[in-house]
Design brief:
single chain, 201 residues, mainly beta, 7-stranded antiparallel β-sheet, 3-stranded antiparallel β-sheet, 14% helix, globular
């Protein structure tokens, strides 16, 4: 099958776009409002975009609480979603009113970051502390901005639980990271295999 996205006439029961761009890491974003309130929300549009400097991004559909807090404070944390925390991650996606802490709603520890004024998930196997470098509205071919707000942050600090370190590497079989698929589907990334890059002739 083929369809053009200007009409989006795919004939399927659900739009397949996000199911094709999968698996996607989950940006479990911790932030703090200017009023001191704490927020924790998962974002399925999240990824690393650079290693030097270390940059990550998450994209919010509209100016939700995380985007608002990050605009106000310029900092956030990105917390690794592992299989043992996936139900709590899902609970933190509840549409709570501004000022209500999803950390408390999900029964998670709001730990204080070391280098920035933002909370992180104390139970997470790994956490990135980030300072905002850019906030932008991506544009389409027509030049019109998307409804999404993209936040890019530089990683300034990294927390790692030594329980997932083996032979000097993060062991994903131990961490059991969870990724977002299409629709309401998720996948666990513990079935790991190694493949070396081929050498040039």
């Amino acid at each position: 099958m083929f369809y053009s996205t200007d009409t989006n006439r795919h004939g399927l029961a659900h739009d397949p776009f996000k199911a094709i761009v999968a698996p996607r890491p989950i940006g479990w974003i911790g932030s703090k409002g200017r009023d001191g309130s704490l927020n924790l929300s998962p974002y399925s549009f999240f990824n690393a975009v650079s290693d030097r400097p270390k940059l990550v991004m998450f994209s919010s559909s509209g100016r939700k609480d995380s985007a608002r807090n990050v605009e106000e404070t310029g900092v956030f944390t990105a917390n690794l979603v592992s299989r043992n925390l996936v139900e709590k991650m899902n609970h933190s996606s509840i549409a709570a009113s501004y000022g209500i802490s999803e950390f408390e709603l999900a029964g998670l520890t709001a730990a204080r970051a070391k280098l920035i004024d933002a909370p992180y998930v104390g139970e997470a196997f790994a956490v990135l502390e980030c300072r905002v470098t850019e906030i932008l509205r991506p544009k389409g071919l027509d030049g019109e901005p998307s409804e999404n707000i993209m936040v890019i942050g530089q990683v300034v600090g990294i927390h790692i639980d030594e329980a997932i370190i083996r032979d000097g590497r993060l062991d994903m079989a131990l961490a059991r990271p969870v990724a977002r698929m299409g629709y309401m589907d998720y996948a666990e990334g513990s079935d790991v295999f190694e493949m070396m890059r081929p050498k040039a002739p």
